[in-house]
Amino acid sequence: MHEDVERCVRAVQSKDARFDGWFYGAVITTGIYCRPSCPVVPPKPENMRFYPSAAAAQQAGFRACKRCRPDASPGSPEWNHRADIVARAMRLIADGVVDREGVPGLAARLGYSTRQIERQLRAELGAGPLALARAQRAQTARLLIETTALPMGDIAFAAGFASIRAFNDTVREVFALTPSGLRDRVARGHPAAASGALSLRLPFRAPLCPDNLFGHLAATAVPGVEEWRDGAYRRTMRLPHGHAVVALRPHPEHVACSLALTDPRDLTIAISRCRRLLDLDADPIAVDDLLRADPDLAPLVDKAPGRRVPRTVDPAEFAVRAVLGQQVSTAAARTHAARLVAAHGEQITDPSGRSTGLTHLFPSPAALAELDPTTLAFPRTRRTTLTSLVAALAGEEIDLGAGSDWDEARTRLAALPGIGPWTVETIAMRALGDPDAFTATDLGIRAAARELDLPGTPVALTRRAAAWRPWRAYAVQYLWATGDHAINRLPAA
Questions:
Q1: Distance (Å, rounded) from C-alpha 253 to C-alpha 206?
Q2: Distance between CA 407 and CA 425 in Å, rounded?
Q3: To pair with 251 at 20 to 30 A between CA atoms, which of 59, 66, 408, 420?
Q4: Phi/psi zone of residue 477: left (φ > 0), alpha (ψ -120 to 50 degrees), beta?
Q5: DSSP label at residue 216
């Protein structure tokens, strides 16, 4: 979009927040780059330059606006609905792969050479993987500087910088302030929290309908791992350097996020996974406009626009839970999962101080690979399905991660015994994050189809749903909304 100058200028002049994250506008007379919705007086069009990423603007010599904080805008929805190499690379960079494994690690995960990855990212985003990761580190550093009392040295390494000097140079270059100056500027009115307690605001593109999003997460919550408490969805997360407990609470203009990390180096990846869980980088205007064009879906969209797809912080966990949920009620699936957690999950201490509620991390595939299938209280065929899936995940035969190839993952899942179209598409929708996944065989979808006088068979309904592409996973959320189920309602506080 950044190449359509006229459209970008109109978005900046109208301060249209819908385009935040789609592109960044820089002003050559001030050396500052902003998000399109920046509240300052728009510059003259001849002084504007447009970039596809914050990293590209930074590489061109511009520094971040201190007022609109462009580096903190929602991520581009391009990386959510695309499955090509650039989109997969961006999802992996957001998941911290470059910081942990370097560019060679990123290339290896994608199955390309480092040169190919560099060339494709530069062609589309104006910056290579190192620059993109550096921009992400700068944002993480600022969050830690502004919201914690951690020493600057700890922040530098927690944000992923290799040295204090690189940390200082990057903060000065990106924000035109020293790290201590950045903290002083914020601390005047907002004292920093104690170490380990992080309170953040997760932005999103409006509208956002929280009902199905938080309703689904609360209704399917696995005891010990997830809970709805005091108006917030809380859960445990396994991260590269430790674990975390997160509380997410919906507000009209943002999602409040409280993070308790055992290692601050995991901040960036924790935020990325929370955003992915809640589908916060989606473009609801584009989704709803397409679905509203269908007269059968239009009333559902108009009633509650901005529905998101509830996803997951751990794709392997969700795949296991999808198998546990085959042909059983939500309550039964929760019971089966809770037993696995109690028997094989890693115990943790809830930082809130409560002895009940969040007690475990969901067991990893490696831990579940050791289970005795005869202890599972469901039919032998489903035991075989679960153990086959766990073995494939533990042996890395199936990649469901942020940079996975969606088509290959579907093929490998479908090859496992007992995994049919419903399970494959459910995993594709919520674990892989494919916005076009479609569970045509789902009982709730078929019931909604009958109520709306849509085709009743999966084949015919799939054919009818072709008009909803590439947003069929969002159509699923609207179809589910026709039923009276807890997954469609925001739980009481």
A1: 8
A2: 11
A3: 66
A4: alpha
A5: H
* Whether 344 contacts 368, CB under 8 Å: yes
Q: Give every CB contact of residue 177 below 8 A, 6+ residues apart in sequence.
A: 66, 171, 185
Which positions ≥6 away from 43 have C-beta within 8 Å?
27, 29, 30
What is the sign, positive or negative, of the torsion defined by CA atoms of 461, 466, 472, 478?
negative
Query: Rounded to an integer, what distance in angstroms lies between the CA atom of residue 19 and that of residue 39?
Result: 14
Helix, strand and coil content of the chain, in percent to the nearest 5, comes to: 50, 10, 35
Sign for the CA dihedral angle at 217, 220, 223, 224 comes to negative
pLDDT tens digits for range 8-56:
999 999 988 878 888 999 999 999 999 999 999 999 999 999 999 999 9
Q: Which of 78, 132, 71 is nearest to 103 (CA)?
A: 132
Whose tokens are 């009392």? That residue is: 149
The residue behind tokens 């459209």 is 7
Does the bond joining 299 to the residue before it have cis omega, within 30 degrees of 0?
no
The secondary element (H helix, E strand) that includes residue 24 is strand 24-27
Q: What is the reported pTM?
A: 0.89
Active site residues: 34, 442
